[in-house]
Queue: 2 jobs
Job 1
Amino acid sequence: MSEEQGVLHVDLGKKAVFPSYEGGIPSEKVNVISWIKNFINKTFVITELEVRKLRHDPTELFTRAAQPALWMLVFGEVFTRVRAIPTGNLSYLDFMAPGILAQSVLFVAIFYGIGIIWERDLGIVHKFLASPTPRAALVLGKALSAGVRALSQAVIIYLLALLLHVRLSWEPLSLLGIALAVILGAALFSTFSLIVACIVKTRERFMGIGQVLTMPLFFASNAIYPISIMPDWLKVIAHVNPLTYEVDALRAMMLVGGTSVYGISTDFVALIVSIIGLVAIGAKLYPTVAR
């Protein structure tokens, strides 16, 4: 019997070879752990690269917030006085504020894919594809950077809600949950945007489709009215719309007296599962944008 370089040989007429171990951990597990660490590291590198672009045009974040601000200031103020929409124990402006935050995140993320087309034209996509970075890490890194951008929208909507006397919750866990919901929502819709960009491949087509998709996603959700008052066919769409679950989570955590229809855990599971599915599709389609 002899032991050389972590491999145990037993002489019983034949040599039996056992898997090597490193530090008491099977080498197969070491390789998996190493791959996961490498994947996470490269994902955050891509995220950092994307976030740095904000230095060149930080005003984009504020211009994106203009439309949601108008919704709160005009639409919200008017319908608060009309009281035509049942919102339970919440004023309509309180009910609407989380929906407008989700809308703001949607508007920032849904046009994120156009950056992929610009990167293709500049040759950046080809450099990414030539690197050893996993395609899923490229897609996920871009998605997380959209989430970081969207946090600025949360700050703006919070300030506006304060001015309008919305009853906001300031509990630390609630604020952390809101930040997570905003990041997940932006990651989800930016990945969806990337998939659209990979399919259409031109800026003109992408902008047209982006405009078409934004409002249906917004109106087919619980952002500005409860699902209970929708017609049956629209309820079906709302239940499979990820924006519905983002708004539901935000409404429960953002407001004093806010409640979740589906349960906050269900909301987050729905968002995470949707992101995983879209990242897998995006990773598959990402190389096609360079063709």
Job 2
Amino acid sequence: MHGNSAKLGFPMRWMAFCVFLASSFFLGFAAFGCEGSTGADSGSKNEGSAAIKPAPGKSNEPIKSLPQIDVSELDDFSRGIWLDMVNELLSPCGDPVSVARCVAENRKCKRCVPAARYVARLVDDGYSRDEIREIYRVRYDESTKVKLSHKGSPLWGSPMAPVTIYEFSDFQCPHCRIAAPYLKKIVDDSNGKVKLVFKQYPLSGHPKGREAAKAALAADRQGKFWEMHDLIFKNQDKLLTANFEDYAKEIGLDLRRFRVDVKSKEVELKIEADRAEGQKAGVDSTPSIYVNDRKYVFPPEQLVEYIREELDQ
């Protein structure tokens, strides 16, 4: 469990980040950012959940073992913590039954086995009990689910892919530049199982970020968003003096159409719509990553493993 993500070749961090969000709970994408607003979600144990109930005719005694789950990498102490947590945490399907009982009694919720494996990984990674409760809540509680749309947004990968990564990004943010090729590589290596949706989130302190967003969306109107995306990030160190028409020429755009589109009201409205969607979802820094309508709160190097877990569900 613990060592798998380190073998994937991802950088340990792509966020050095300008502003520390002191109220943030995690040391992942959300922990630091170029711009801070709200802190990470907080919640108490089993917040908003029904009391745990046994199945008819079944005992409510804690489950002592789950042979269905491989926890061979956990030592005895960690295994005890894991058993405590899966007996406490509720089924990811929202049923008033613990994850452990859901697995032991082969309940109809098919997400319980992956959830039990997930908790084992969190224990193995050294998270505290309170941290595990919060991380589990962010991934599975209905109150932390956000509704994001890919309609009208640039998409990389297969539209039918079962896992969707939403990236709220700013072309002037250096951390977004570092993230960009890794996110595309995850999609490319997924055999059609992952898609990336790009959301414009130019920060107020990055005026060139908004100009770049307009140029990218204007290119999108000619079917070349990703070519412009890559070129802008490649030349980010020259962004303050960039001439986006030169970029448009380089990728073969119709310049007359590009000049019209880059100043159009539709492009401006798309940027504002993406920002509003991000603010509603709790975006507080860039890049902010969501996977299947859940905020991704781990370090970048764990994203591939997180996606594997999504596919397992």
